[in-house]
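Checked the freezer inventory, then went back to the computational side. Two predictions to log before the end of the day. The first one is the construct we discussed on Monday; recording sequence and tokens without edits.
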Amino acid sequence: MQSFGKIYFIGAGPGDPSLLTVKAANVLRKADVVITDRLVSEEILTEYVNSSAEIIPVGKQGASQVSASQKEINDLLVEYANQYEIIVRLKGGDVSLFSNILDELETLSQAGISYEIIPGITAVSGAAAYTGIPLTARGFATGVRILTYYQNTAIADELWKELAKFNDTLVFYMSGKSLRKVVSKLLTAGADGEIPFVVVEQATTPNQYIHQYTLQDFFFKNDEPEFMSPSLVIIGRVTSLYQQFAWLPQGERIEYFTNLEELNRTIEINNGYQTYSNVSRA
């Protein structure tokens, strides 16, 4: 009977390495292999992963030729589960929120490979805490809607009308490039143009940077050609509290997370797969 190792899906948190959970850190110290996304602090890889572990970067980055396909990642999980006892699939934020964990879980289930899911602090909870924005502040919002919007995202007109009432705080993941369309959709659906919102770049890192707008002035004030990745959009009355309760100073608008194009220059090719070679090993 085939004997497999175990896959641990771990949420690395939104950026600040000290937000890694104790359980996640304990598993990383025992891992034989770590298959990691791009949006993971390098400090986590250098401080918490044992020196003998193999680190495989499989991050995705828009317009990058070195991004790993989902099939390649699925194949890696099965291959390493055939060779090692403890394999970590490390993802930014929390593994269950806007990640491709479903594809990977289906692959492991079909192959009969055991797994465990270890949650991480989400990007939205990290961004809310590090901007001082209480997402469900009494009198400002009754709940939170967590969404994403691409050019081909299907959101019905009736749902836009409901969202435009702003009874809830709206949080948009991975929507920086389509933000003009989001704002336009909300205004067309009847949203009050005075509704404020923020765009949080690289939340919880030293380079966290906040852009502030209202729906109606966004098209006039937005002079940024592109928001830095990762960016989170928080729209709603609660964002008016940002200036009052912000505690983290604005960071520099420079990359905190490793750029895949730069990372590719320091990657060794090992048995046809990419092995992280610029992590310092004590």
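The second is the one RB wanted added to the comparison set:
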Amino acid sequence: MELQTIAIHGHGYFDEQTGAFIPPIYQTAMFEQPGWTRKSDRGVDLKYSREENPTVRALEHVLNKLEKGSDALCFSSGMAAISALYLFLLSKGDKIVLPSEAYGTTIQLAKELSKFGVKTVTTWPETDQIIEAIDNNTKLVLVETISNPMLRVIDIPQIAKRCQEVNATLVVDNTFATPVLYRPLIDGAQFVVHSMTKYIAGHNDVIAGVTIGSSAEEIRKLWDWRRRLGGILAPIEAYLVLRGIKTLEIRVRRHCESAQIIAEFLKEHPKVEEVYYPGLPDNKYHTIASRLLNGGYGGVVSFRIKGGRNEVIRMMKSLKIIKPAPSLGGPESLLTYPVISAAMTIPEEERERLGITESLLRLSVGLEDVNDIIEDLDSSLKNI
């Protein structure tokens, strides 16, 4: 099956008794145990929804097929997925390699593991520097397909090759690219994680995360950590993600098309100093993005205005359609100020070095008419 068909039918649910083919919400805390325990298709006991739930399991089937994995686990958030992976994979004396532009909380949590004897090394967010930091002591490498907010594109196959040489586990956060544009497991990653809050669910109304693995055995071991930690996704959220994921490919393609047009518009705007978007031919990452990504460059455009914090605030206050808010990947266009959102946990000196300055804005391009988005941007920029 192709991706769009998988997104709609990949759950495989069908009720022989009623003929229903949409997975229902199993809003139950427990399951009957009449002297014996039923098993889920994963082979684990179906007894308590903190451990396994049929609605969640239906979503996991879809996500696993979309990323071409061996199995998947849904979590209550993207950070719940990453937290479980850290605890599952790492032991005293292990080393984590993270790019310094990774999601701030991902880095924060990794550094907190020093109290358990885990060493975290952050490196400049470029492929060569990440590879250089990976040595024989490295246990885990976590990278993002497209970085946030500078939209650097990492050469995942090269990172995977280096990880294989030293027997390190590669985890790829594929939130910005989605399986529509890229599938890291095919190129050698062991695990893929998503904040499904973004493009996967796609409607700005769900908090959810997922881990997909190349090995069903490893996912089964991770399942035990999810069970112990209690981070499973709730069935109502799983149902909403299942509903949203049906339009994933259509939405992502539209996000990408509009983002390309808006990046080109901003590049020529007199109030914009610089535009960061891998779809622009003169962007540093255009060549690698064209090689890795499947016919699109993502739905996020970052840009630097001529001014600073005061001008940013003035612009954001004058928006009419675009919402000044964190997050991305939904129908509503969202303009984010990185220094007070995802990047605020990064030390100021490091932020500046990365290019995350007080004049930088990140636009998650929504599904509104692209001309309306452009008009809103133009009129707001004229106020600075």
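For RB: The longest helix spans residues 248-267. The domain at 248-381 is CATH 3.90.1150.10 (Aspartate Aminotransferase, domain 1). Let me know if you want it refolded.
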